[in-house]
Write a structure and sequence with these properties.
Diaminopimelate Epimerase, Chain A, domain 1; 334 residues; alpha/beta; inorganic pyrophosphatase (n-terminal core); 6-stranded parallel beta sheet; globular; 2 domains; 12 helices; 6-stranded mixed beta sheet
Length: 334
């Protein structure tokens, strides 16, 4: 069983004022784990703020106390003793003001990405954990009175997100046991799945339709991909948040080994989402382009233009993803 280090528990028990954050462009694990940790620490008598400069995505707005997630800290920096960065493998993508981090005497990282490297005063990085939410659960179960019903609902959402509603390969026996404990504490699996995976805005569905129409498929390599331009977003009245889950449709073709979604943001930055079928590992590919993630789900960001980024990334993929009929055995996308 995964157990948090003593120095992390001592830190959470000793200090009184915390700022909890996660990565930019947060999803269910980042919001669920950071908010769940904050709610648990508050129940234990601590003073906490939850900050994410990119705000809370629509699919997470159902979570309890979600309005307490701020886009900027309210307290003065000198009042915060500890900043906890949850579910973030890249310090450059932390969703908190840099000056707050620089001035804080103690920093903590709680993460489960294989690409994560120690970057804080206290680092708890467990790549075998299914989600950051699982790690936060292991922390709160050791802090008396902190595992409240609201914290449980947040942590269940975090785990459900990163296990794909308990369908992905990271759905371990431990993950299911933790999920069962969270349900016993008050998490609602049906409502959580509906909000996280089923309900989407009309604009997101229109954008999905455009993506499926534009999708490209390479039978020889098992590569599927799609590129969404600013015109596609304008035509569907969609935002970048509306792309959530589209890459799974791109990858979900029978026989696909790797799926890629390119999307052009309003500032010209190109965001790349990668999904893979074992034994393909896209985390190494993402790191090659300054990103990161997991073996089967990763991403990166690149300066535009879209066409140039698309060709660079697809060329790198094709180099490491030999044709199905090829006898050559090269490590995929390394």
């Amino acid at each position: 069983m995964i157990a948090p280090p003593d120095e992390l528990l001592a830190c959470l028990q000793t200090y009184e004022r915390f700022l909890i954050t996660a990565h930019r462009s947060p999803e269910g694990d980042a919001i669920g784990a950071s908010l769940g940790l904050a709610l648990g620490l508050r129940a234990a008598g601590k003073l906490c703020e939850t900050v994410n400069t990119d705000g809370v995505p629509a699919m997470c707005r159902f979570l309890p106390c979600v309005d307490s997630v701020l886009t900027a800290p309210k307290r003065d920096d000198h009042e915060v003793a500890v900043i906890v960065d949850v579910d973030n493998a890249n310090p450059a993508r932390v969703a908190a003001p840099p000056e707050s981090i620089d001035r804080c005497p103690v920093t903590v990282v709680i993460d489960h990405h294989a690409s994560s490297r120690p970057s804080a005063s206290i680092n708890w990085i467990v790549p075998t954990a299914c989600a950051a939410g699982e790690l936060v659960y292991r922390v709160l179960e050791r802090l008396p009175g902190s595992l409240t019903a609201d914290a449980a609902r947040c942590l269940y959402a975090a785990i459900a997100t990163d296990t794909g509603a308990f369908r992905y390969r990271n759905t371990s026996a431990d993950a299911l046991r933790v999920a069962a404990e969270l349900v016993a504490l008050g998490a609602d699996p049906s409502a959580t799945a509906r909000h996280l995976f089923d309900e989407r805005s009309l604009s997101s569905r229109k954008l999905l339709g455009l993506a499926l129409q534009k999708m490209e498929w390479e039978e020889s390599t098992g590569l599927s991909w799609c590129a969404l331009t600013r015109e596609d977003f304008e035509r569907s009245h969609a935002t970048d948040e509306d792309t959530e889950g589209i890459v799974n449709f791109i990858h979900g073709i029978e026989g696909a080994r790797l799926g890629v979604l390119f999307r052009e943001s309003a500032d010209g930055e190109i965001r790349v989402s990668l999904r893979a079928t074992p034994p393909v590992d896209v985390s190494t590919l993402a790191q090659r382009f300054g990103g990161g993630g997991h073996a089967l789900a990763a991403g990166c960001r690149q300066p535009g233009p879209l066409a140039a980024v698309r060709e660079r990334v697809l060329s790198a993929i094709r180099e490491g993803l030999p044709n199905r009929e090829s006898p050559e055995r090269r490590p995929p996308c390394s």
